[in-house]
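$ ./design --mode recover --in tokens.txt
reading tokens...
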């Protein structure tokens, strides 16, 4: 019986995808739910599992083809179930010879996150581990996730080495035996398996690696495989191409198709350092560019005299910290002022969903924070109903978790408006980029003493430039300017916040 493999549902508003990689070829045995291929859409990567056990018959949509929802991808000749046993590998020989084994699986990564990259292993094969001891760290598009050991014992096998991209249900490692020493440790990785080789031999390289080698025009001998038994992976090909490009630059020839850069003098090339972008940095780059490509972004500017806020803060900061246990900063004033202005100009707190405008009757305030690994935006939920002290505590706690890389996915989702304080780095003026699908972001800048004309006299005042970037598709110029003026008025006379004026 022939079974059809079709494109699954790709998600709301997604109508087509590109076939990125086939993991099986005609004639291969497949097990039910075994991954056959990978599709790429403009939003996510989708894996296509086998609907039945059997033998791969025909691939209808080749790698690189664009297919619609429910399009035919391949056919499978249904077997009698033997394929299931053949397709799934036996228990790893790297596990300890006695005792129970426990699989270490990828933990929950968060809503809409389907894959992660193994960034660091803290343990090696053969090491003893305690329950809940950190084994490795995964890096997703947004956060780093630490993986604790589910049991005490010996790390018998690492199935996903550093640099491997894993899906949300993948196995990372195997823990064998018990912590009481009843089980002999497994051999160290250097002893248990031969070092990766650059030769193909009988090892089947990853289909994506074969495709990448063909596109780059390099041979298998130029690629050092780091996969199981020396299997070449796509990342291995990328490293080989980069190494070839560096060698070509160092020897002086012009750039080739595999290294489309201008020729680099040998002395300059020797001083360069090539570092792979982290997934977080790649995501930041993609989201910021997508924001520019999607929204009709415009920025309006104003300036605010921070004298009243600074005087009020200086007057009450000691009492505030003594009572609430947190310092009184400027962010709570700006948060309050923005929440006040958003009530009057609700479109700045709204978002576009298709042909509809979604107005939010609440304010989930995103507060952009710089971290050693990149920019993140934790969200202060229901900021419009919080006191100054509650806002300051929430910002301090989120900022600390952001710097430590401990933010969860949930803490960075659902924001309706964002504050970005470039002033802490000395920025005098900038145009912040929207954080989609939000329609507004307020840029704060450095407080600087400047001469101002007040009542016919020139006086020195502590001034700050404000910048509101907004999506002109939903926010008109009048609304944007009105919002910024209301923020300015509330900061220059904080009593207006108490009077709701």
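writing sequence...
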């Amino acid at each position: 019986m022939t079974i059809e493999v079709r494109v699954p549902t790709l998600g709301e508003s997604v109508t087509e995808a590109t076939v990125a990689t086939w993991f099986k070829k005609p004639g291969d045995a497949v097990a039910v739910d075994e991954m056959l291929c990978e599709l790429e859409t403009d939003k996510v990567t989708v894996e296509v599992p086998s609907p039945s056990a059997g033998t791969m018959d025909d691939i209808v949509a080749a790698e690189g083809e664009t297919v619609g929802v429910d399009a035919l991808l391949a056919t499978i000749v249904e077997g009698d179930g033997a394929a299931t046993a053949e397709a799934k590998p036996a228990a790893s020989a790297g596990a300890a010879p006695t005792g129970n084994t426990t699989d270490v699986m990828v933990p929950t990564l968060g809503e809409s996150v389907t894959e992660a990259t193994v960034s660091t292993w803290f343990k090696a094969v053969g090491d003893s581990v305690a329950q809940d001891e950190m084994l490795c760290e995964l890096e997703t598009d947004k956060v780093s996730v630490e993986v604790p050991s589910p049991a005490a014992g010996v790390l018998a096998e690492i199935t996903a080495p550093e640099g491997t991209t894993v899906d949300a249900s993948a196995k990372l490692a195997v823990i064998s035996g018990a912590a009481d020493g009843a089980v002999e440790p497994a051999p160290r990785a250097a002893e248990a398996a031969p070092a990766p080789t650059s030769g193909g031999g009988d090892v089947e390289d990853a289909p994506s690696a074969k495709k990448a080698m063909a596109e780059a025009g390099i041979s298998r001998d130029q690629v050092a495989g780091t996969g199981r038994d020396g299997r070449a992976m796509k990342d291995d090909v990328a490293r080989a191409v980069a190494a070839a490009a560096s060698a070509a630059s160092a020897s002086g020839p012009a750039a080739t198709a595999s290294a489309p850069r201008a020729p680099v003098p040998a002395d300059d090339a020797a001083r360069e350092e090539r570092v792979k972008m982290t997934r977080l940095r790649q995501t930041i780059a993609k989201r910021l560019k997508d924001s520019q490509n999607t929204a009709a972004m415009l920025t309006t500017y104003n300036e605010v005299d921070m004298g009243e806020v600074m005087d009020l803060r200086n007057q009450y900061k000691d009492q505030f910290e003594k009572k609430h246990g947190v310092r009184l900063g400027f962010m709570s004033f700006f948060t309050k002022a923005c929440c006040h202005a958003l009530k009057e100009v609700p479109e700045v707190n709204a978002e576009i969903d298709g042909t509809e405008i979604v107005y939010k009757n609440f304010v989930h305030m995103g507060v952009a924070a710089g971290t050693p690994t990149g920019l993140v935006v934790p969200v202060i939920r229901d900021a419009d109903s919080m006191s100054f002290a509650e806002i300051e505590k929430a910002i301090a706690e989120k900022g600390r978790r952001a710097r430590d890389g401990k933010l969860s996915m949930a803490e960075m989702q659902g924001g309706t408006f964002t504050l970005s304080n470039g002033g802490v780095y000395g920025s005098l003026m900038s145009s912040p980029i929207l954080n989609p699908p939000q329609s507004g972001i307020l840029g704060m800048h450095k407080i600087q003493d400047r001469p101002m004309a007040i009542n016919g006299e020139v006086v020195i005042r502590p001034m700050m430039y404000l910048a509101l970037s907004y999506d002109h598709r939903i926010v008109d110029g009048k609304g944007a300017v009105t919002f910024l003026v209301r923020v300015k008025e509330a900061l220059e006379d904080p009593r207006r916040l108490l009077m709701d004026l």
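exit 0
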